[in-house]
Amino acid sequence: MTYTPTTLLTFEQFIADYGDDFRYELADGELIDMEPTGPHETASGKLATKIGIAITHAQQPWFIPRTCLIQPLADIATARRPDVLVLDETLLDRKPLWQREPIITLGRSIKLVVEVVSSNWENDYARKVEEYALLGVPEYWIVDFRGLGGTAFIGKPKQPTFTVCQLDGEDYNQQQYRLGEAIVSPLLPDLQLRLDDVLPR
């Protein structure tokens, strides 16, 4: 991931210039080039498939949008583009921007956010944890299939790690899973998933 040097953008400028460009996010007015790789997209796609199957089995009115932005805080020029996002369709009529653009500004309709870790692992393990908790997102997954995160987050020796963050009050309780372990999701109790299932071949 690289940070593109530029003057600071407002949220509105970002939407106008980069809203349809999947390569970019906005953080505190700074344009961030996400530089997606093939293995990253492979893991994201496999996760979306597994989650979609679990949603169908659970018969929930939820779906995974093809493209969507999250504005975590209205007073900060930040726009997140999660790798996988699960929305509750029954709550979208209350979203101020949704009828015109795929932008979520209130957390109630978000059921799950998934970030597949890349070179910007600090954001996934720290800043986004705070942002999604403030939004009230009930579950946030950090999928670090290459073991890139710092040892403070994934331990020693560094190894592939799948972290399920479950909201408890205003903070997340975190449970980590390694290769070979069945992942438990309170949101999707019938989910059949191990980290091994989403690894690129």
UniProtKB/TrEMBL annotation:
CDD domains recorded: DUF820-like (cd06260)
Any one GO molecular function term: endonuclease activity
InterPro entries according to UniProt: Nuclease_put_TT1808, Restrct_endonuc-II-like, Uma2
Domain spans labelled Putative restriction endonuclease: 12-195
Keyword annotations of the record: Endonuclease, Hydrolase, Nuclease
Protein name in UniProt: Uma2 family endonuclease
Organism: Roseofilum halophilum BLCC-M91
